Amino acid sequence: MRAELVAQTITDLWSIKRPVCITGAPGGGKTSIAKQVAESLGVQYIHKHMPSMLVEDFGILFPKDDSDMLTYKLPEWFPTDPEAQAILCFDDRNQAGPDLQKVMANIQEERELHGHKLPDGVMIVSTGNRVEDRAGANRVLSHLADRETEIELDTMLDDWCKWAIGEGVAPQVISFLRFRADLLHDFDPQRPKNPTPRSWVKGVASILGVVPPEAEYECFKGAVGEGPAAEFVGYMKIWRKLPNVDNILLHPDTHEVPTDPATLYALSGSLAERANNGNFGKIITYFNRMPPEFGVLGVSYATRKDEELASTQAFTEWAVANQDVLF
């Protein structure tokens, strides 16, 4: 299931608080989806990383007042306020041992912990990698699996690009992955490093401009692997030699349009990144001189980055002229 539909499904299930587990290959954005749903719902997000927890983290026995009785002291993170509204995320739940999985199963079924009721406004969303990815995932206890709805996340380029634009991910990375879509999430447990949505954002995009160009390949290789790193470094050489955007804006109807696909991907991304209400008409003039698919790509990027651009006269005229490509 694609990311947008996973998020929408969890949002729909919020009304009945059905426990959900998002599964998929490492680095696909499972935890991010849970957090984004909480933000969109305007509720608290409580994140617990299951592999680093102990059973004692769910409560310990403690003397009750001055009596000989013992009672459980709950951890601070467990919501007890009857008015609480939250998504409680048990992250990497199938890397947890059987004892922790049993605790989770009881919370999900009985909605209580050591006699303390989970508030009606709290929904449990878990995440987990697949066993075949060899990322430390264990087989989930059958009674835990029976108490939740499992949804498998499929990585889709359009969904990721929409998210990346909204998060301000470096446009060079977004444009490159549109050019080499198969490298967005190419996970092989036999390789020491793999390109994943997470590694592209945290291991590549965040490093751009931080280290000098001569150090980029080694840094990128350590995040996404040798092959993808080499391709991206080659793409960056093209990006850094792109025509000056200011010159294009001065002469959008006559400035040379490149023919190399890699350069067109890079240039459409670069122009879209610079688009604003003042220059969008000129940028569209240049986009109209590109092969149609690159014009659509550039306009799509620009309007996702700045939704107000979709209300301009330039966009309206472009959409009418290109309706056969859009619909």
What would you note in describing this structure?
By secondary structure, the protein is α/β, with parallel strands linked by helices. The protein has two domains: 3-152, P-loop containing nucleotide triphosphate hydrolases (Rossmann fold), CATH 3.40.50.300; 157-326, no CATH class. It contains 15 helices and nine strands. It has helices at 3-13, 30-41, 98-110, 142-145, 157-167, 171-179, 197-205, 213-224, 226-239, 245-250, 261-274, 280-287, 292-305, 313-321, 323-326; strands spanning 20-24, 44-49, 60-63, 70-73, 86-91, 112-113, 116-117, 122-129, 149-152. The strands form three sheets. It has a five-stranded parallel β-sheet with strand order 2-5-8-1-9, covered by helices on one side. Strands 3-4 form a two-stranded antiparallel sheet. A two-stranded antiparallel sheet has the order 6-7. The model has no long low-confidence stretch (mean pLDDT 89).
